[in-house]
Amino acid sequence: MTNIIIAGAVGLILSMLGTPLAIRLFSRRGYGQEIREEGPSGHHGKRGTPTMGGTVIVLASLLAYGASHLATLEPVTASGLLVLFLMTGLGAVGFLDDFIKIYKQRSLGLRSGAKALGQLIVGAIFAVLVTQQPNIYQITPADTRLSFLRDFGPSIGIVGFTVWVLIMIVGFSNAVNLTDGLDGLASGATGVVLAAYVLIGNWQLRNNCIDQLGPNCYWVRDPLDLAVVAAAVLGALIGFLWWNAPPAKIFMGDTGSLALGGVLAGLAIATRTQLLLILLAGLCVVITMSVIIQVGFFKMTGKRVFRMAPLQHHFELKGWAETTIVVRFWLIAALCAALGLGLFYVEWMPK
């Protein structure tokens, strides 16, 4: 638990103190957000707000993880490093996207193909490495099987597993990106999922098959270190949210949203809870589905289901205040995370 507390505390402090420095630096250099013309009219007043704040989240998380291991003299693990690699790699793709937006003064950065290619390259490296690196008990960070509360079913092979991991990584990094449309929305929505993974990693540690072999034990490599990663990112995210809450002084940009989506997917894969992430991050999934429904229905009928997609903008155009939408969506995100945790613990309930 000491590792988790240190990681969360250091991430919080670094992000809380580092974000205002980033605000001043980015403002001085003119790194302001461009706003889509077709978006809600209330967003035009946000033009010029410093963006790329996700760099603070990523850097604070990495430093917090390192500080935790230095303070406790615990060695870093393959699982923790791979999840952080995924987060950092996707954050780099997002940073390039954000920088192009700023440099060319437009609301669109990387072309969709180039952005997807960057995500796929980082994801493919992670997918291959995560099935290797066995520990002394021959447990790898992930196995080539699907998982819900734990791995189940037969192996789908390295090719099938790689494809599945890429779907997860691209899907959830874009899901968080779509959720990041209102001040503080994505920060709060992903924060509750990270908190859930702190609990999941700690529970898997206390019920691992190495120390106590039993019917419900977990064959998960490095569950404590995965909880440390989740705590480090959570602490950094809370510190950033202090400045990102409505009205936001800084936006995380694609740098932050892609990185956060990546860390959620990485934690789900390494803790063997891949399908459970759909429930834990239910709000992001619903918001993504609103875009898919809107685009698909419009192509088939020429009509729209929502006034605007993603879903949060539909409620904006209905007249809801931005803070009302954000708080209500945070509550939905918390309920989704609670439902996922409840299902995770249900197999331990007395029968």
UniProtKB/TrEMBL annotation:
NCBIfam families: mraY. PANTHER family: PHOSPHO-N-ACETYLMURAMOYL-PENTAPEPTIDE-TRANSFERASE, PHOSPHO-N-ACETYLMURAMOYL-PENTAPEPTIDE-TRANSFERASE HOMOLOG. Belongs to the glycosyltransferase 4 family. MraY subfamily. Its cofactor is Mg(2+). It is an enzyme of class 2 (transferase). It is a multi-pass membrane protein. The chain crosses the membrane at residues 6-27, 48-67, 79-100, 152-172, 184-204, 224-243, 250-270, 276-298, 325-346. Its main location: membrane. Signal peptide: none annotated. Its EC number is 2.7.8.13. Catalyzes the initial step of the lipid cycle reactions in the biosynthesis of the cell wall peptidoglycan: transfers peptidoglycan precursor phospho-MurNAc-pentapeptide from UDP-MurNAc-pentapeptide onto the lipid carrier undecaprenyl phosphate, yielding undecaprenyl-pyrophosphoryl-MurNAc-pentapeptide, known as lipid I. It holds the Pfam family Glycos_transf_4. It is found in: Cell membrane; Membrane. It catalyses: UDP-N-acetyl-alpha-D-muramoyl-L-alanyl-gamma-D-glutamyl-meso-2,6-diaminopimeloyl-D-alanyl-D-alanine + di-trans,octa-cis-undecaprenyl phosphate = di-trans,octa-cis-undecaprenyl diphospho-N-acetyl-alpha-D-muramoyl-L-alanyl-D-glutamyl-meso-2,6-diaminopimeloyl-D-alanyl-D-alanine + UMP. This is Phospho-N-acetylmuramoyl-pentapeptide-transferase. Pathway: Cell wall biogenesis; peptidoglycan biosynthesis. Keywords: Cell cycle, Cell division, Cell membrane, Cell shape, Cell wall biogenesis/degradation, Magnesium, Membrane, Metal-binding, Peptidoglycan synthesis, Transferase, Transmembrane, Transmembrane helix. The lineage of its organism: Bacteria, Bacillati, Actinomycetota, Actinomycetes, Streptosporangiales. InterPro entries: Glycosyl_transferase_4 (IPR000715), PNAcMuramoyl-5peptid_Trfase (IPR003524), PNAcMuramoyl-5peptid_Trfase_CS (IPR018480). GO terms for molecular function: transferase activity. Coiled coil: none annotated. It comes from Nonomuraea corallina.
